[in-house]
Write a structure and sequence with these properties.
By secondary structure, the chain is mainly α. It is built from 9 helices and 2 strands; from the N terminus they run ααααααβαβαα. It has a two-stranded antiparallel sheet. It is elongated.
């Protein structure tokens, strides 16, 4: 505040932002991971995005000039990028699309709480996370091709009767009907059905071309 009073507004802005960065880093370092990835991401998201919200309110009060806002936005975007890097290290190492989807939704929901004060970073988050999900999906597809190929080679090709209800659950249109499937075909269906359910939280227009494989 003294720098502002003395007319050194640029230096005051830089000091304000660097102090807020230090506060965020300190709070994040205090955060403990106990094995529950969604819980950790929920707490991390609250720390980062609520800190950005408070910083924005304080910044606009201290620096009401519009020309000062660009510096704040660049700073906030860098803090979001730091968050994304921490998010990716924790979430995408899990190998679980269900965990990825849950955590992405947690992050987006927390990020969108900033929109009423004029901060919108959800599109940046989606693009960043989608690129990582796409990479994980291609890796999964490669593993799946190898796995299903080996299963088909060892399959006895003897059919087994399965009920439509057991395959489709509550979505079954003819629950009393039965289908004759080989073991490998049943495993293929079960695996892909599970994948679709796990991906339901991460499907977006940006990923559509990848998902239609």
């Amino acid at each position: 505040s003294w720098l502002v009073r003395l007319g050194f507004r640029d230096q005051a802005r830089d000091t304000f932002l660097s102090t807020r960065s230090s506060m965020i880093r300190t709070d994040v370092r205090r955060l403990k991971f106990h094995g529950d990835i969604p819980q950790y991401i929920s707490e991390l998201s609250q720390i980062v995005f609520r800190s950005l919200g408070r910083a924005c309110t304080e910044f606009q009060f201290m620096f009401p000039e519009k020309q000062m806002l660009s510096g704040f936005l660049l700073w906030a975007l860098q803090e979001v990028e730091n968050y994304c890097q921490a998010f990716k290290r924790q979430v995408f190492s899990s190998g679980s699309f269900q965990v990825m989807g849950t955590c992405i939704q947690l992050a987006l929901n927390q990020c969108r709480e900033l929109e009423p004060i004029g901060l919108s970073f959800s599109f940046h988050l989606e693009r960043t996370f989608n690129a990582s999900v796409e990479a994980e999906l291609y890796a999964w597809m490669a593993r799946f091709d190898s796995w299903i190929g080996s299963r088909i080679q060892t399959d006895s090709h003897m059919g087994q009767v399965y009920s439509v209800r057991s395959l489709f659950g509550p979505l079954a249109r003819e629950p009393n009907r039965t289908i004759n499937l080989t073991k490998s075909a049943h495993e293929l269906f079960t695996t892909l059905n599970g994948l679709v359910q796990d991906l339901s939280l991460v499907i977006s227009p940006l990923l559509y071309g990848t998902l239609v494989f």
